[in-house]
Amino acid sequence: MPSGDLIPINRLRIGQYVQAANEEGQLISSKVLGFLDKRPNETAPYITLTLASGHAVSLSANHLLYVTALNNSTDGNAEGSMSSIPSHPVYAGQVQLGHYLYIPMDGQLRANPVVGISYGFKLGAYVPLTEHGSIIVDGALASCYASFPHWLSHALLMPARYFPEILLDTEDSQDSPGLRTFPSILKMVGQTLAKIKVVNNYKSNDIIRLYAFDKHFPSPSL
Fold first, then answer.
1. How far is residue 27's CA from residue 109's CA, in Å, rounded to a whole number?
2. Residue 4 confidence (pLDDT)
3. Which helix (H) or strand (E) covers residue 101, if one does?
Protein backbone atom coordinates (compact mmCIF):
# COMPACT_ATOMS: atom_id res chain seq x y z
CA MET A 1 0.00 0.00 0.00
CA PRO A 2 1.20 3.62 -0.49
CA SER A 3 1.42 4.03 3.28
CA GLY A 4 3.87 1.15 3.44
CA ASP A 5 1.34 -1.14 5.11
CA LEU A 6 1.36 -4.69 3.78
CA ILE A 7 -1.72 -6.35 2.35
CA PRO A 8 -1.86 -9.98 1.16
CA ILE A 9 -2.27 -10.07 -2.59
CA ASN A 10 -5.32 -12.32 -2.24
CA ARG A 11 -7.06 -9.48 -0.36
CA LEU A 12 -6.24 -6.83 -2.94
CA ARG A 13 -9.32 -5.07 -4.37
CA ILE A 14 -9.86 -2.97 -7.46
CA GLY A 15 -9.69 0.75 -6.73
CA GLN A 16 -7.02 0.36 -4.05
CA TYR A 17 -3.65 2.07 -4.47
CA VAL A 18 -0.36 0.20 -4.22
CA GLN A 19 3.29 1.12 -4.50
CA ALA A 20 4.69 0.94 -8.04
CA ALA A 21 7.15 2.72 -10.33
CA ASN A 22 6.70 5.20 -13.15
CA GLU A 23 8.69 5.29 -16.38
CA GLU A 24 11.37 7.41 -14.72
CA GLY A 25 11.95 4.78 -12.05
CA GLN A 26 10.37 6.83 -9.28
CA LEU A 27 8.38 5.25 -6.46
CA ILE A 28 4.72 6.18 -6.85
CA SER A 29 1.20 5.07 -5.93
CA SER A 30 -0.72 3.28 -8.67
CA LYS A 31 -4.37 2.25 -8.79
CA VAL A 32 -5.36 -1.42 -9.06
CA LEU A 33 -7.58 -1.62 -12.15
CA GLY A 34 -8.47 -5.31 -12.06
CA PHE A 35 -6.97 -8.76 -12.41
CA LEU A 36 -5.47 -10.37 -15.49
CA ASP A 37 -5.70 -13.78 -13.84
CA LYS A 38 -6.82 -15.10 -10.47
CA ARG A 39 -6.46 -18.76 -9.42
CA PRO A 40 -6.92 -19.03 -5.65
CA ASN A 41 -7.18 -22.82 -5.56
CA GLU A 42 -4.33 -23.72 -7.91
CA THR A 43 -1.02 -25.05 -6.62
CA ALA A 44 1.87 -23.93 -8.81
CA PRO A 45 5.70 -23.91 -8.78
CA TYR A 46 7.28 -20.71 -7.52
CA ILE A 47 10.76 -19.27 -7.25
CA THR A 48 11.64 -17.40 -4.05
CA LEU A 49 14.37 -14.78 -4.33
CA THR A 50 15.88 -13.77 -1.00
CA LEU A 51 17.42 -10.31 -0.80
CA ALA A 52 20.11 -8.97 1.48
CA SER A 53 17.41 -6.75 2.99
CA GLY A 54 15.62 -9.88 4.22
CA HIS A 55 12.77 -9.65 1.72
CA ALA A 56 11.68 -12.98 0.19
CA VAL A 57 10.06 -12.45 -3.20
CA SER A 58 7.98 -15.40 -4.46
CA LEU A 59 6.87 -15.40 -8.09
CA SER A 60 6.26 -17.80 -10.94
CA ALA A 61 9.32 -18.29 -13.13
CA ASN A 62 7.71 -16.51 -16.09
CA HIS A 63 6.82 -13.37 -14.14
CA LEU A 64 8.86 -10.24 -14.84
CA LEU A 65 10.95 -8.35 -12.27
CA TYR A 66 12.99 -5.18 -12.61
CA VAL A 67 16.62 -6.26 -12.36
CA THR A 68 20.08 -4.78 -12.69
CA ALA A 69 23.51 -6.33 -12.44
CA LEU A 70 24.87 -2.90 -11.39
CA ASN A 71 28.21 -3.51 -13.18
CA ASN A 72 30.04 -0.17 -13.13
CA SER A 73 26.98 2.03 -12.65
CA THR A 74 27.58 2.25 -8.85
CA ASP A 75 30.20 1.02 -6.46
CA GLY A 76 28.12 -2.12 -5.92
CA ASN A 77 26.92 -1.19 -2.44
CA ALA A 78 23.22 -1.29 -3.34
CA GLU A 79 22.83 2.42 -2.62
CA GLY A 80 21.92 3.43 -6.17
CA SER A 81 18.33 4.46 -6.85
CA MET A 82 16.35 3.02 -9.75
CA SER A 83 16.22 6.42 -11.45
CA SER A 84 20.03 6.44 -11.68
CA ILE A 85 20.72 2.77 -12.53
CA PRO A 86 19.91 1.12 -15.88
CA SER A 87 17.40 -1.67 -15.34
CA HIS A 88 15.10 -3.86 -17.37
CA PRO A 89 12.40 -6.45 -16.74
CA VAL A 90 13.77 -9.98 -16.46
CA TYR A 91 11.86 -13.23 -15.98
CA ALA A 92 12.12 -14.46 -12.40
CA GLY A 93 13.47 -17.78 -13.66
CA GLN A 94 16.45 -15.94 -15.19
CA VAL A 95 17.45 -14.01 -12.08
CA GLN A 96 20.83 -15.06 -10.68
CA LEU A 97 22.68 -14.62 -7.41
CA GLY A 98 24.33 -11.21 -7.47
CA HIS A 99 21.59 -9.58 -9.51
CA TYR A 100 19.86 -6.66 -7.86
CA LEU A 101 16.13 -6.09 -7.40
CA TYR A 102 14.53 -2.83 -6.28
CA ILE A 103 12.98 -2.23 -2.87
CA PRO A 104 11.30 0.91 -1.47
CA MET A 105 13.64 2.74 0.87
CA ASP A 106 13.49 6.35 2.07
CA GLY A 107 10.92 7.23 -0.58
CA GLN A 108 12.97 5.80 -3.43
CA LEU A 109 13.49 2.48 -5.17
CA ARG A 110 16.95 1.23 -4.26
CA ALA A 111 18.90 -1.72 -5.60
CA ASN A 112 19.33 -4.67 -3.24
CA PRO A 113 21.22 -7.88 -4.09
CA VAL A 114 19.78 -11.36 -4.45
CA VAL A 115 21.56 -13.59 -1.94
CA GLY A 116 19.45 -16.73 -2.16
CA ILE A 117 17.24 -18.60 -4.62
CA SER A 118 14.90 -21.41 -3.62
CA TYR A 119 12.11 -23.37 -5.28
CA GLY A 120 8.81 -24.74 -4.10
CA PHE A 121 5.07 -24.98 -4.61
CA LYS A 122 2.54 -22.47 -3.33
CA LEU A 123 -1.22 -22.26 -3.32
CA GLY A 124 -2.83 -19.42 -5.25
CA ALA A 125 -1.91 -17.22 -8.21
CA TYR A 126 -2.97 -13.58 -8.49
CA VAL A 127 -2.04 -11.17 -11.30
CA PRO A 128 -3.31 -7.64 -10.63
CA LEU A 129 -3.01 -4.88 -13.21
CA THR A 130 -2.14 -1.35 -12.09
CA GLU A 131 -2.32 1.92 -13.99
CA HIS A 132 1.47 1.91 -14.46
CA GLY A 133 1.98 -1.80 -15.19
CA SER A 134 4.19 -2.39 -12.15
CA ILE A 135 3.67 -3.26 -8.50
CA ILE A 136 5.64 -3.86 -5.32
CA VAL A 137 5.31 -7.58 -4.47
CA ASP A 138 6.80 -9.05 -1.29
CA GLY A 139 8.72 -5.82 -0.91
CA ALA A 140 10.33 -5.70 -4.39
CA LEU A 141 9.37 -4.08 -7.69
CA ALA A 142 7.79 -6.39 -10.25
CA SER A 143 6.05 -5.96 -13.56
CA CYS A 144 2.35 -6.78 -13.71
CA TYR A 145 3.09 -9.04 -16.67
CA ALA A 146 4.43 -12.51 -17.38
CA SER A 147 5.49 -14.77 -20.27
CA PHE A 148 6.03 -11.97 -22.82
CA PRO A 149 8.19 -8.81 -22.88
CA HIS A 150 6.94 -6.02 -20.60
CA TRP A 151 6.80 -3.46 -23.41
CA LEU A 152 4.60 -5.71 -25.55
CA SER A 153 2.19 -6.63 -22.75
CA HIS A 154 1.95 -3.02 -21.59
CA ALA A 155 1.16 -1.81 -25.10
CA LEU A 156 -1.41 -4.51 -25.86
CA LEU A 157 -3.16 -4.01 -22.53
CA MET A 158 -3.62 -0.27 -23.01
CA PRO A 159 -7.37 -0.74 -23.77
CA ALA A 160 -7.75 -2.64 -20.49
CA ARG A 161 -6.10 0.18 -18.57
CA TYR A 162 -8.54 2.70 -20.10
CA PHE A 163 -11.65 0.49 -19.85
CA PRO A 164 -10.99 -1.97 -17.01
CA GLU A 165 -14.66 -2.32 -16.07
CA ILE A 166 -15.41 -3.61 -19.57
CA LEU A 167 -12.27 -5.64 -20.32
CA LEU A 168 -11.22 -6.87 -16.87
CA ASP A 169 -13.25 -6.63 -13.69
CA THR A 170 -16.11 -4.93 -11.91
CA GLU A 171 -16.78 -4.85 -8.18
CA ASP A 172 -18.96 -7.92 -8.65
CA SER A 173 -16.69 -9.94 -10.95
CA GLN A 174 -13.29 -9.32 -9.31
CA ASP A 175 -13.55 -12.42 -7.11
CA SER A 176 -14.21 -14.75 -10.03
CA PRO A 177 -11.35 -17.22 -10.65
CA GLY A 178 -9.62 -17.70 -13.97
CA LEU A 179 -7.84 -15.88 -16.78
CA ARG A 180 -9.89 -12.92 -17.95
CA THR A 181 -11.19 -13.01 -21.54
CA PHE A 182 -9.31 -9.99 -22.92
CA PRO A 183 -5.91 -11.09 -21.53
CA SER A 184 -6.55 -14.61 -22.87
CA ILE A 185 -7.04 -13.19 -26.36
CA LEU A 186 -3.84 -11.15 -26.06
CA LYS A 187 -2.01 -14.23 -24.85
CA MET A 188 -2.93 -15.98 -28.09
CA VAL A 189 -1.64 -12.95 -30.02
CA GLY A 190 1.64 -13.14 -28.10
CA GLN A 191 1.96 -16.87 -28.76
CA THR A 192 1.45 -16.24 -32.47
CA LEU A 193 4.12 -13.52 -32.49
CA ALA A 194 6.48 -15.88 -30.65
CA LYS A 195 5.90 -18.64 -33.20
CA ILE A 196 6.93 -16.35 -36.06
CA LYS A 197 9.94 -15.15 -34.04
CA VAL A 198 8.75 -11.56 -33.68
CA VAL A 199 9.13 -11.75 -29.88
CA ASN A 200 10.58 -14.22 -27.42
CA ASN A 201 8.40 -15.63 -24.69
CA TYR A 202 9.17 -17.45 -21.47
CA LYS A 203 6.74 -20.34 -21.17
CA SER A 204 5.29 -21.12 -17.78
CA ASN A 205 6.23 -24.78 -18.20
CA ASP A 206 9.92 -23.85 -18.44
CA ILE A 207 9.90 -23.99 -14.64
CA ILE A 208 8.39 -27.47 -14.80
CA ARG A 209 11.39 -28.54 -16.87
CA LEU A 210 13.59 -27.28 -14.04
CA TYR A 211 11.73 -29.62 -11.75
CA ALA A 212 11.80 -32.53 -14.17
CA PHE A 213 15.48 -32.34 -15.07
CA ASP A 214 17.30 -30.42 -12.37
CA LYS A 215 15.24 -31.63 -9.40
CA HIS A 216 15.22 -28.19 -7.82
CA PHE A 217 11.65 -28.59 -6.62
CA PRO A 218 10.36 -30.75 -3.81
CA SER A 219 7.28 -32.75 -4.70
CA PRO A 220 4.12 -30.69 -4.17
CA SER A 221 1.96 -31.52 -1.19
CA LEU A 222 -1.48 -32.22 -2.58
1. 6
2. 63
3. strand 100-105
Whether the per-residue pLDDT at 202 is higher than 70: the answer is yes
Is 35:126 a contact under the CB 8 Å cutoff? yes
Euclidean distance between CA atoms 39 and 149, whole angstroms? 22
Q: Residue 149's closest CA among 192, 196, 200, 86?
A: 200
- How many C-beta atoms surround the C-beta of residue 47 within 10 A? 25
* pLDDT single digits (tens) 91-101: 999 999 999 99
Domain ranges of the chain: 9-214
Residues in a beta bridge with 143: 134
> Using one digit for the tens of pLDDT, what is the confidence trace for 118-129?
999 999 999 999
Residue 52 has pLDDT above 80, yes or no: yes
Residue 209 has pLDDT above 60, yes or no: no
User: CA-CA distance, 194 to 192, in Å (whole number)?
Assistant: 5
pTM of the full structure:
0.86
- Provide the 8-state DSSP code for 208: H
- Phi (first) and psi of residue 7, to 5 degrees: -135, 130
CATH number of 9-214: 2.170.16.10
Could you tell me if 20 and 130 are in contact, meaning their C-beta atoms sit under 8 angstroms apart? Answer: yes
